[in-house]
Amino acid sequence: MGKRDELIEKYAKDLEKIGVKVDLDLLTKVTIGCGPSIYNTDSSLVSSSDQSEIDTVKNNFLIKKLGLADGPNLDEGLDAVFEQYGKSNRNKHRAVVYYLLTKHFKKEAVYNK
Predict the structure, then answer these.
(1) Residue 17: its pLDDT value, please?
(2) pTM of the entire structure?
(3) Which of 43, 65, 86, 112 is most enclosed, with most CB atoms within 10 A?
(4) CATH number of the domain at 3-112, out of 3.30.2130.30, 1.10.260.40, 1.10.238.120, 3.40.30.10?
(5) Do 58 and 82 form a contact (C-beta atoms < 8 A)?
C-alpha cells in the first residue's frame, strides 16, 4: 500500500469518527486533488482559527475548484464543516475538510469529470 492509500485510509477513519458515511471514490478524488500538500505536515492541515487559512480555503477551493459564487453562504458552509469536524480538533486534515465541503455544497459532480 502506498503513502497516499495510507492517508486515504486515515482520512476515512477520521470521517467515520464524526459519523460520516464515507464515499471512498470521492474521498480518493478529493485527496488526489489536494496534490503534494497532503505529504507535508503543515500544508496537510487546515487551521479553523486562522482567518488567512480560511480565506485561502474559501478562495482556492470553494470559489476556484468548486465554482461557487462568493457570499455569506460560503462562510456558513465553512463554519458548519468546522463544527462537524470538531472545533476543538486541532488536526483538521485538508482532504477531509475539502471532502466535507464538497458534500456540504453538493458539488460531487466536480470530481466526476
Answers:
(1) 94
(2) 0.96
(3) 65
(4) 1.10.238.120
(5) no
